Inverse folding.
């Protein structure tokens, strides 16, 4: 697994899901990043390929993401990029996760109202070191929890 610090700008592609774990809060959502370029022949901006990243947030950042970020929001994410590759059914698959250290709304595309989190509000468990990757339950459509299911990063096909 390769790891590098990145800053990624895109739109929230799935509603953020937050869980309370023994080590503190943990949240995740998918981020869609579409490159745009100037097409000289058409004389207009054109959308390029869309890449998807799974963004993971821990502790206080996770709680703030849960109360601040929604599906479709334009956001800026800074964190450690983790790219994994694996073989499945004879095909090579890659998944890209960002272990976020900072997340905010993209103010080039709208406005946002900042509310500071009071210092005493974060539970003691939220100040512990971040775990490798939590086991999560997958919520089915229209309900909060599906006991026994586990969330895993979604692989992206490599062509």
């Amino acid at each position: 697994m390769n790891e590098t610090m990145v800053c990624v700008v895109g739109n929230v592609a799935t509603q953020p899901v937050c869980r309370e774990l023994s080590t503190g809060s943990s949240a995740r959502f998918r981020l869609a990043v579409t490159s745009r370029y100037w097409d000289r022949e058409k004389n207009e901006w054109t959308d390029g390929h869309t890449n998807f990243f799974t963004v993971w947030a821990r502790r206080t950042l996770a709680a703030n993401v849960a109360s601040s970020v929604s599906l479709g929001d334009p956001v800026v994410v800074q964190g450690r990029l983790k790219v994994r590759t694996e073989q499945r059914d004879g095909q090579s698959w890659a998944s890209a996760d960002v272990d976020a250290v900072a997340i905010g709304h993209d103010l080039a595309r709208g406005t946002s109202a900042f509310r500071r989190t009071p210092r005493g509000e974060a539970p003691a468990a939220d100040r512990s070191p971040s775990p490798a990757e939590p086991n999560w339950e997958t919520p089915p459509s229209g309900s909060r929890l599906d006991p026994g299911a586990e969330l895993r990063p979604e692989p992206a096909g490599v062509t």
In short: Confidence is low (pLDDT under 50) at residues 123-130, 143-159.
